[in-house]
Design a protein that fits this description.
Elements: H1 3-18, H2 22-25, H3 45-89, H4 94-108, E1 113-119, E2 131-134, H5 139-142, H6 145-150, E3 154-156, H7 160-167, E4 176-181, E5 186-192, H8 205-219, H9 224-229
Length: 230
């Protein structure tokens, strides 16, 4: 098709959109219009319109069903978050707190690996809880500054240097991550071997609220004088 033909088609299409009553004023044109049908015989303009509207209706219905499913899933997720929050906040032992947190995250997100890095906070966690202590000014941490400055969870794929730092020998298997800043206290990173598990733009409300729970719990461990001056 030449550019002139395409241009003319665009002009005609634009005109008909702006003047939907045109064919009512020129009914004689209807007999000259030909609309093919997948089954073979030609069909009327009205039949084609009905088919088009039916297709649009089905597409809208599918979108509505998807939105309803997402809303239902989010409601269940928030309910589980509420229950987990209540469970975590009554734990007197900080190591047990992080043990339960790790267990919940691994299960909730079907994760393969987790890294909890705390800045200048020493926590004697259980053997299955991947907590690492480091200085906030550590050069290796500076590469995460952009994500930490966002103040909210960042999902997607980290570069190899960042994955090597977080997951060491298992870094090559981590295809997507959710990095959750913990305020001034550190960061929590969830890794998955599924490249589509964590992706840019996915909802992170659950993770952000859970981060608030962690930050609040860590604040309870600060000396009283430090909490008063904060």
């Amino acid at each position: 098709m030449s550019d002139d033909s395409r241009s003319m088609e665009e002009i005609v299409a634009k005109f008909l959109r702006q003047n939907p009553e045109f064919l009512e004023r020129e009914p004689a044109l209807l007999k000259d219009l030909e609309l093919s049908h997948s089954s073979g015989p030609a069909i009327s303009l009205i039949e084609r319109q009905v088919q088009y509207l039916r297709g649009e209706h089905e597409a809208l219905q599918q979108k509505l069903n998807n939105l309803i499913q997402v809303a239902s899933d989010n409601e269940k997720l928030m309910s589980r978050l509420h229950g987990l929050t209540l469970e975590l906040m009554v734990m007197q032992s900080l190591p047990l707190f992080f043990d339960r947190l790790t267990e919940a995250l691994m299960s909730e997100f079907n994760a393969d690996i987790i890294n909890i890095t705390l800045f200048d906070i020493d926590v004697e966690a259980g053997p299955k809880t991947p907590i690492y202590q480091t200085n906030r000014d550590d050069a290796a941490i500076q590469q995460f500054q952009e994500q930490l400055d966002k103040g909210s969870s960042v999902c997607g794929r980290l570069n190899r240097d960042k994955r090597d730092h977080l997951f060491a020998t298992r870094a090559q298997w981590v295809q997507s991550t959710a990095l959750v800043p913990l305020g001034k206290d550190g960061m929590l990173v969830i890794g998955s071997s599924d490249p589509a598990r964590f992706y840019p733009g996915m909802g992170t409300l659950f993770l952000d609220l859970l981060a608030d729970v962690v930050v609040s719990r860590l604040a309870l461990e600060e000396p009283e004088e430090q909490r008063k001056s904060a």
